[in-house]
Write the structure tokens for this entry.
Amino acid sequence: MLTAPMSLIITVDGPSGTGKSSVSRAVAEAIDLPHLDTGAFYRAATLAVLEEGVDPEDPAAVLAVAKRIDLDQSNGATLIGGRDVSTEIRSEAVTANVSAVSAHPAVRSLLVQHQRQWVERHGGKAVAEGRDIGSVVFPDATLKIYLDARPEVRARRRALQTGDDAEAVAERMAIRDLKDSTREASPLSVPADAVVVDTSDMTFEQVVRTVLELIDKSST
């Protein structure tokens, strides 16, 4: 097991289907750091918006909901007011609306505060994954990783996870990619100082090993 330095924030960005979540969790476990899934915060906010019957396109109403709820992550679970919503935030309804909710600048600003405070509460150390972590949330991170993969590979991986048709998944992912990369607030982008890792032809174990090697080099 690698030993984490006194201060260490590893950011893992990239589009869906690149292995961000599974790789980030494995890396965090390997170096004994907390793991933060920032995308789950946006999904939790989206779930709360839908449960309250609020229009995801209404920025003021969405922000009001986001301000009322108590978001947290603990032991891999995503919580709203202490309620474990880890399963609910992966529903089709949440997936279909999370881009709209996360596009509102004021909502993103609020949730970025939550994410930074979460890391502070965990000793200023974390492996944090998302879509704007190295570029916006933790621009001074110790190491920034950007995972990528060919579109057809990403779609195939996600289809295997969900059981959906790969072509349908590819269409949904293309729409999500476009929304995420063109939104006004914190668009999905490769941080200028990030190490890009193309996972298309790599096994899960190879990706994890590559990231761990990069962390080891960055700490020496």
User: Anything to note?
Assistant: The chain is about 50% helix and 15% strand. The first helix runs from residue 20 to 30.
